[in-house]
Amino acid sequence: MELIIGYVHQGLQFIIPLVILLGLLIFVHEMGHFLVAKYFGVRVEVFSLGFGKKLFKTRRGDTEYAISAIPFGGYVKMFGDELGTEIPDEEKGFAFNHKPVGQRIWIVLAGPLMNFFFAILLFMIIALVGEDLVGTTVGDLSPNSPAYSAGFRPGDRIRSVNGVAVQTWEELTGLIQSNKNSIISFDVQSASGETKKIETTTIASENKNVLSDDLLVGEVPGLNFTFRATAVGVSDPNSAAGKAGIKTGYLVKGVNGRPVEKWIDLLRTIESEQANKAATLSVDFVAKDDDKSVTTLAIPLIRDGRTAKAILQSAGIEPSDLYISKVVEKSAAEKSGLQENDRVFSINGTDIDYWEDLVLKVQKYSPEQGPLKLKVFRSGKVVEVEIRPEITTQQDHAGKDKNVYALGIMTSMSMAPPQTILVKTTNPFKAVVVGFQKTVHWTKATVLSFLRLIQNRVSAKSIGGPIMIGQLASKTFQIGLSAFLKIMAIISINLFVLNLLPIPILDGGHLLFYVIEGLRGAPLSMKKLEIAQQIGLVLLMGLMVFALFNDITRLFQ
Questions:
Q1: What is the pTM of this model?
Q2: In the listed set 299, 319, 339, which residue is the last one of a domain according to the structure?
């Protein structure tokens, strides 16, 4: 019974946000057609949310209002809008096809335009309500990275770049990217509150934003906002942690009653407890998928000057980065005998401390160098493994397949939520400006995404259908109002752009026919219009099937 209730709950979490999102966007789009049609005196026969069998309908005046069974769309049925319809002379004043071509253009254009203006409204509401955006706090850094060498440390907060104040990580990266191969200065506040100035030289790197025209942008390698969560690795079952039943992947929830979320917070809390002369660390652990069952481990604090890292290691605890959570079937790792919970600590005699260092070494592998020699901890013992990385197909930032060397292992590491700040305005006039600017930005991005698809710079696998929209709606609905409204605004803009494409059966196709009619002074022949409609229907159905195929493929992956 609990399993059935769980499935029902998951289904509702998916369906309800999807219905709200699509219902509003479809209503807004069709309301645009409806209002302008009524304004020009066209009789509207049906206003329907959805297609197919009508589940609910009511009539008000000349119009039947309906909710239909298939929710992925809607329609406004206007009197006289069908090809070849014979209209009595006394009724022609109410018929769509007998209206001047300029009025028909406005009626068709009104639907997409309503989606555009609705996006402005949504972004305006977000600006007033506030949006949680990633701040400028520096995340975990590898000591081998240029960012670390320049002087950045985890927890630093970047205040300005070249004298320009920054609030969000997006603003920060925008300034860095616009200065490639340049010396730039940062005003930084450390985690302890001290201020410092850092100067470093950016490099020119590949622009991962496929919606930008710049192929190369500035970068400070290693600078990022991500933090490791408190997932632990336990290499020795005979350690204090192992004997207490703590397993690799468990999360530390608190130390001496003080909650922690990031690994760096865990270390700093232990150091603070040392300074407070605490005698024991009472560390609370939970399994990653079970936030209720708490396992507490007492770690005595010995005053011998040990670091927080050493104190945890004495109990058999360390970061989970290099612990293997999964070995992919038929991979190089499986063939070599690597196992789940193995902890990699050396490659070809070089110690490895960070997952990204392991990945980089493997990706730079060359078959001429022979097998890699790995050393791993397994159940408290050192095991040597020889392994030849194999070419694996992975997706890059543009969703396109690329071939890289890989071992076929997954890390036990998990990431903590990034540090965010609330960005909002109380000025309604500024909110209108922000709403317009955001809508124009995302409209450009949407148009560029279609262009990149044509240029094959973005994989067609990135096209999503109803399942993908439902997943986005469900996820953002759980995050909060601003996130949900933002995805609604972006999809509204997608509808605006998509419907303006000159494809017969879409609004853009109708607009194209009416523009041609206006230029030549007469409509296209009935035969040409029917052929165009059939071609448009095939294209649209093909796109829908392809998008649904991508959705299902992603589910199975």
A1: 0.83
A2: 319
